[in-house]
Design a protein that fits this description.
372 residues, alpha/beta, Rossmann fold, 2 domains, six-stranded mixed sheet, four-stranded parallel sheet
């Protein structure tokens, strides 16, 4: 365990959730471990609404899911780490680009729970955040591996499992983004949480980034289970082969089936995508490659609401919202922006970390110019 985690380790407790409140039969079957402080706020964004011509705009502040490191990944990790611990695992392995927020969140919470953490990383364009993210990994002691393509990553995970000191079965594999039928339950929970917060003023439309699809699939399922017809504008921020409508549907159905098998009163939802639209036009030229609209949206929310977004995920989702608002598509609609970015500051020790313990391939990112 790192020195940083010794100062911030929480109690290893399990608490209730909106999902378990609505469907009590799930309590003894889902091994969720509490990492979050929920519910996250639903905050009005009057200044941003005025700038974009919207009558009603709120922000779901999932940047505040947890006091140490927030964002959407933590909701998924509650179910995945709970399962890992239930299975007696002593380490996890996951996947992500070099600057992956999911990879960092996994490493942070693995460390807090006393689990080892391996991350298999792939290259990405340099963003202003990569160097500090890698220094945070160095502070935590994350075991980093490099894959020269996404296709090679599973074989590296297999090799790590075969060499795991306590046996392959004790190295728990977490998919990229935490997006599995189990991980997606974190956002089924989030949707039911939102339903309880917005009993009389449910949003007509939610804008959210779509990467590995778990957040969107979970939201789609949870909103339907809550009886809400809120439309989801899922803004693709990854290559088209990673996020697809068919992939979202398959993940949604698998999560739904998992719940139904535990509690038969939970219905199987037909046509899970009838409230989801996958938006393709704000991706730009590549993953982590910013766009003018994205940069403008990030600057706009900073100036109006004093919120900091990034240009890989949340900035592109907000760019879609701003575009649609100014195009008149959202007139008379209650709009919500779901902020999936982490708002919590990194520990001061991150900036003192020189990165000398990082693998040689990772150190070059520390020297790259950090430009937008």
């Amino acid at each position: 365990m790192s020195a940083a985690s010794r100062a911030i380790r929480p109690a290893n407790t399990v608490t209730g959730s909106a999902l378990e409140t609505v469907f009590p039969a799930l309590r003894d079957s889902l091994r969720r471990i509490a990492l979050t402080e929920l519910p996250t706020p639903v905050a009005p964004a009057a200044a941003l609404a005025a700038e974009t011509g919207l009558e009603s705009l709120h922000i779901k502040r999932d940047d505040q899911t947890a006091p140490v490191y927030g964002g959407n990944k933590v909701r998924k990790l509650e179910y995945l780490f709970g399962d890992a611990i239930h299975r007696g695992c002593d380490a996890v392995v996951t996947f992500g680009a070099v600057g992956s927020n999911h990879a960092l969140a996994t490493a942070i919470y693995a460390d807090r729970l006393g689990l080892g953490c391996h991350v298999i990383m792939t290259d990405q364009p340099v963003t202003p955040y990569i160097a500090r993210t890698l220094r945070y990994h160095a502070l935590l002691g994350t075991h980093l591996e490099y894959a020269d393509s996404h296709g090679r990553a599973p074989a590296i995970a297999d090799r790590l499992a075969s060499r795991h000191p306590t046996g392959a079965g004790r190295l728990y594999r977490i998919p990229g983004g935490g997006s599995s039928p189990l991980g997606a339950l974190g956002y089924v929970n989030a949707a039911l949480e939102l339903a309880a917060q917005c009993t009389d003023t449910a949003p007509d439309v939610i804008y959210v980034p779509c990467g590995t699809m778990g957040t969107v699939a979970g939201l789609a399922l949870g909103l339907r289970l809550a009886g809400m017809q809120t439309r989801i504008e899922a803004v693709r921020v990854v290559p088209e082969q990673v996020a697809t409508s068919s992939g979202i549907e398959a993940l949604c159905r698998a999560a739904n089936l998992r719940l139904h098998e535990i509690d038969a009163t939970i219905p199987l939802i037909g046509d899970p995508l009838n409230t989801v639209r996958l938006r393709e036009e704000f991706f730009g030229t590549g993953y982590a490659e910013t766009t003018p609209g994205c940069r403008q949206a990030v600057a706009l929310i900073r100036s109006t609401e004093s919120l900091v977004l990034e240009t890989t995920y949340t900035g592109k989702a907000l760019a879609a919202l701003v575009h649609d608002a100014r195009d008149g598509r959202l007139n008379g609609r209650r709009v919500m922006f779901w902020n999936t970015y982490n708002a919590r500051p990194y520990p001061a020790a991150v900036d003192d970390e020189d990165g000398s313990t990082l693998p040689q391939w990772a150190r070059r990112y520390l020297r790259e110019p950090q430009v937008m």
